[in-house]
Amino acid sequence: MLFALLAVPARAQNPPPSVDAAALVRRAVAKRLAADAAPQPVRFVFHKRDERRDFTQTIIETRQGDVALTIAANGQPLGPVGHQAQIDRLNNLVSHPDLQEHRHRNEKQDAARIDKLLRELPNAFLYHADSATVPCTVTVPPFIPIPGEPLPPPPAGPVPVAQCYHLTFTPNPRFNPPDAESRILTGMAGELWIETSHERLVRLTAHVIAEVEFGWGIIGRLDKGGTIFLEQTDVGNDNWQLTQMKLNLTGKALLVKSLSFRITEEMSRFAPVPADLDYRKAIQTLLSEQPPAPTQTAASTR
Question: Residue 4: is the preceding peptide bond cis (ω within 30°)?
Fold first, then answer.
């Protein structure tokens, strides 16, 4: 899994001291990578919507990888067949630790790819910082609905507002991508917001401003016009988590296969869990929270 919620530019504040934009990005990336190396595990609600599926899960992070239970599909609770399939799948993971280890390896590979791109951010772009900071909201109330459950009450009082550096970025013509995956950065431009007191990345918006080819166009191509939107927030104890991601990208693979990534992911209702939590215990927790199996049929998802 890359940045947290509602960093909306507003009336500028007093100009800060001169900002070295590239150094600021470098520090923000270093803090993100350091946090990834010493994670604070959480449980949360995850909602994903793409061109094929729309589902909601409860996810618990553990030292042996994430454990997920799908609780809704297409905005409706799972029917009895889907509900039982989820229970059977989790029980199967308990009985076969090798399956969970395989899932964990895939998670680590995905995280390594994201970290690799993060490390390239300071060098891949030319940055310009505004002469003044702007207000930005870096906390998010629980907002993902769970079918059959009321939303938690909103936090009392006003939502805390911090200050952010607002930066724009364009491709660095001197950047030499170290691999095919990093080539995506050569065709992007956009904006990002970095919170001033913690120097943590809050929001990133990017546009594909030029067609990007991979492997001389044989492996793949990313079309001009795509967009990426990422938000991150402090969910407590200086634990910054991704809370929203939107991808709208198109292209081709192997010259002929059309690619389309129209994905929205939302994460909320974060709560800490023990750092040494065993994945089997996390599964027991999820199963113990399940209501009796529903009696009416509804759509299910894997």
Answer: yes
